[in-house]
User: Which sequence fits this backbone?
């Protein structure tokens, strides 16, 4: 009897120890999961802060040297003032050049796209400054057999890229090796340093508010009646819609990589895209109906390649 009681006590103690061990394991698992979640959040916050900090110098330059004109419809850039402080632009470009491809690949698509748009705009400004004030247009930097957009000017992501490669291959995905971002509104964000181009934004693009920034740029450009308007049943549009018409058509079926948080711009034709911004275009009800029925005539306006310099 005494031996059976002793054995019972031993088994009870053993079971109690096992239960306590399981409890500790469960607690450890919960702590590990919590730590993992915390690390994930912290990592996300760190990436966000890293990207915002990366583009802060460019935002500071743009807010200082970009001048709004035509009641906010467009902007000019003080190239003279910026050239006197070109070291600040160079520091920003050096920061972009230090971003490794492996780091870029880990970012959210919105952060990637913001990075590429900023890089295009910053390297375009830098290209202008190489010959400013002896030029009247970015096209002066090319020749009969050369193009300023095909100059290798941008040390970026482990390569030295041209402006065309940044825009058409990396952003638009016009290459077998790249998918692009399926985002037609980038045409109102990348800036070719010309009066005919959509406004150079007074701040850098950042992933966390990229969608709202692109939408604001699109509305801004379409509301500019000197470059986009509808007279009767005739759409008079910027040449941008002629050059890049495919980007506003059949977006839903294109094999491109969309980014989360983007406005639904999966339009099948240009009329559908413009109808998303009917208020910016100030369309009347009959004009809206004309677009919905795809009966509008389209006329593309001349493009002004003069430098977007302050006057």
Assistant:
């Amino acid at each position: 009897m005494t031996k059976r009681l002793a054995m019972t006590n031993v088994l009870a103690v053993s079971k109690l120890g096992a239960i306590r061990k399981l409890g500790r394991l469960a607690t450890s698992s919960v702590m590990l999961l919590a730590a993992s979640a915390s690390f994930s959040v912290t990592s996300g916050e760190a990436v966000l802060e890293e990207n915002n900090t990366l583009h802060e110098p460019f935002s500071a330059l743009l807010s200082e040297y970009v001048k709004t004109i035509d009641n906010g419809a467009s902007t000019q850039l003080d190239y003279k003032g910026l050239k006197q402080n070109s070291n600040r632009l160079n520091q920003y470009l050096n920061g972009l050049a230090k971003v490794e491809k492996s780091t870029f690949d880990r970012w959210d698509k919105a952060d990637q796209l913001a990075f590429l748009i900023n890089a295009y705009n910053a390297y375009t400004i830098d290209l202008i400054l190489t010959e400013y004030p002896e030029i009247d247009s970015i096209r002066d930097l090319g020749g009969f057999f050369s193009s300023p957009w095909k100059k290798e000017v941008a040390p970026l992501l482990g390569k030295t890229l041209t402006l065309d490669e940044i825009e058409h291959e990396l952003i638009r995905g016009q290459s077998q090796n790249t998918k692009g971002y399926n985002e037609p509104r980038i045409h109102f964000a990348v800036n070719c340093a010309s009066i005919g181009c959509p406004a150079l934004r007074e701040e850098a693009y950042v992933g966390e508010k990229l969608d709202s920034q692109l939408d604001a740029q699109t509305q801004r450009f379409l509301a500019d009646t000197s470059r986009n308007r509808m007279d009767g049943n005739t759409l008079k549009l910027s040449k941008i819609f002629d050059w890049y018409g495919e980007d506003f058509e059949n977006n839903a079926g294109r094999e491109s990589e969309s980014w989360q948080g983007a406005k639904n711009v999966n339009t099948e034709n240009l009329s559908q895209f413009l109808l998303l911004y009917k208020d910016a275009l100030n369309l009347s009800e009959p004009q809206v109906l004309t677009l919905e029925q795809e009966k509008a005539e389209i006329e593309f306006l001349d493009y002004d390649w003069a430098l977007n310099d302050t006057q």
User: Anything to note?
Assistant: Confidence is low (pLDDT under 50) at residues 1-8, 32-41, 252-256. The beta strands are 66-69, 74-77, 152-156, 159-162, 229-231, 234-237, 297-300. Residues 43-300 form one domain.
